[in-house]
Amino acid sequence: MPILQTDIDALTEALATGERMVRKGDKVVEYRSVDELLAARNALQAQFDAEQAASGTVAARPRQTRLCHGGRGY
Hints:
Elements: H1 5-17, E1 21-24, E2 27-30, H2 34-55
């Protein structure tokens, strides 16, 4: 069963609200701790990223941040 972004988003939302219980359809999973929930979310994210890279839908390049300064720098 492929990992969906909605699965990762559900875990992230649970982390943001402080919940340890995540519902998907008729299934409910209750995690023992926030650390366990965080580990599950990170594992799903890693698996999702690996699936995306293997399918070639996502280019494997780092994110870039560009900063521009238009002032005198005082």
